[in-house]
Design a protein that fits this description.
The chain is of the alpha+beta class. It contains 28 helices and 11 strands. Helix 3 runs antiparallel to helix 17, helix 18 packs antiparallel against helix 19 and helix 22 crosses helix 25. It binds zinc ion. Zinc ion binds next to helix 22 and helix 24. Keywords: Hydrolase, Metal-binding, Metalloprotease, Protease, Zinc. GO terms for molecular function: metal ion binding; metalloendopeptidase activity.
Amino acid sequence: MTAIKDDFYDTINGDWVQNATIPADRPVTGGFIDLNQDIEDEERRVLQAIHDGKQVAPDLLKEFVQFHKMTANWQQREADSVQPLVDVLKPLKALKSWSDLQQHWSDLIQNAYTTPLSYGVAPDFKQADFNELWLSAPQLILPDTTSYADDNPQRDILLNVWRDMIRQLLLATGCDQEWAQHIVDQALAFDRLIAQYKMSNEAASDYWQLYHPKQLRELSQSVVDVDLKTILTSLLGQTPEKIIVSDQPFWEHANEVYRAQHFDMIKAWMIAQAAYETAPFLTNELRILAGTYRRTLTGTAQAPDQNKAAYRQAHLFFADQVGLWYGKTYFGEKAKNDVIKMVETMIGVYQQRFTTNTWLTQETLRKAAQKLSALTIHVGYPDKLPEYLAQRQVDSTQDIMGNIMQFAKAAVAYSLGQWHKAPDRNIWQMPADLVNAYYDPMHNEIVFPAAILQAPFYSLEQTPSQNFGGIGTVIAHEVTHAFDTNGARFDEKGNLNEWWVASDFENFEERTKKVEQQFDGLMIGETKINGHLTLSENVADLGGLSAALAAAKQDVGFDATQFFMNYAKIWRQKAKPEYTAMLAAMDVHAPARLRVNVQVKNFDTFFDIFHVTEKDGMWRSPKDRVQIW
Ligand SMILES: [Zn+2]
């Protein structure tokens, strides 16, 4: 039996970790994931009751139920066999030449094909109330550019699994061996080319490094073989003058990627992408085959069964509608008011801390308080959905893929239609039935979907100290994002703007550097943690714990033990080593165990209540403890 003094996380969660079983069709269990599983079970129960005629489908679920009938109709899926994939591949296979691709590029994008021209329409970092066109770099097969290093033993194993999977998917369409082999070889060669220039996840975790506005003329000159003006004009209906590049290192080399002589590679890469994206919606055998790479990457033992798959595939396209129904059905006014009160308490704590802060000048603190006051709070579920989702309808005359292509096309049209408009701040980026929360620096807003408001995060049966250690730390974590290493660079309107007194910002960075060092190089099994990649989230955790603890202390029945113990409990997790390794390469969050053990050691209260001394594993000397907010 471990003691709290030696390993806090293990003492609280050790028995649970020992006994927990990771479901065969998942790479991880515990905390957020268990709650998501409960919600999925409940939604599937309701879905079944509707299909059995025991319950009438509520309006918000009607189309979801219709689409689920399609995803669950395995007989039809077997009968359709590979034909939907053959149809999807047709326009790609028909591409004859580079100039042919130039002509069809915008059509392909509008028809929701994944092309190597990765784009998005999103707020201008320096004018957050105005949407611009952004260009980035294509997705890689492996989790990160660093995964392509010669000394990564997993690289070739994973790429070979991907190669085999795509080859088999293509062979299923009746093509010959040689062609399938050619496609995977060329697609992999193009992937390797992208990996040479793309930003690493670590570099991209610094948002302010992602802002490079360009003139169309300038950008066109950097890709001489691409008819960028014609493609973008066709997409937007107007010629854009300004385009924002997020992945500058990649675009500096774009001319070496988007070349006429790479036509074969690019065509093959698009064919591979389309096969990978389409196959999950075909027969059961092809669905399972299409999950091979992902399962290997995450260490997942087996594919979900057909019933689960049918539910998840339908949910994928109706998550916002189902989430809205979930929020309206399960999240009452009482809970909403409770949470809003907690958020206001936390903001009050922050305001208070700004007035007693000793390491920042009044000028910076005044602006920080301004940003805090301007923070928008969303709780429970959104007031509305984007039009294209609210109106999404299933066309019963078409098959699954026909419907999916329509859904995807509508999503592309919606996104492109947002260009040069003001972002709609009532639209959420997360469905209400997802156990999660977020801060958006461009909107200076925090969002708490209904799903996260459950035990052990929050329950009326828990003590206030437990709730502060649970949902309190989550709320304060999101508030802290407004002042983490990314949030600190955006002002109260959501614009990238240096609002700090310069010397204050230096002090801030000195402190955040210490947080980076606390995490950098720590090991979880064989996996090394990147302190820079996870910095903004670790700063948010530290501030979250700090503000929630301060708020909890205001309660007459405050119990520090309960506070810290529930904090450890919300992060209990058991994951496959492959999954941990994958996240370490791409996730901005530190692994659950470190979010507990590394963070609590920054709090004097923790050492006091558990009598931790320099002889103990959980010790950290006072000079090495960090507090920022
Ligand atoms: Zn966060």
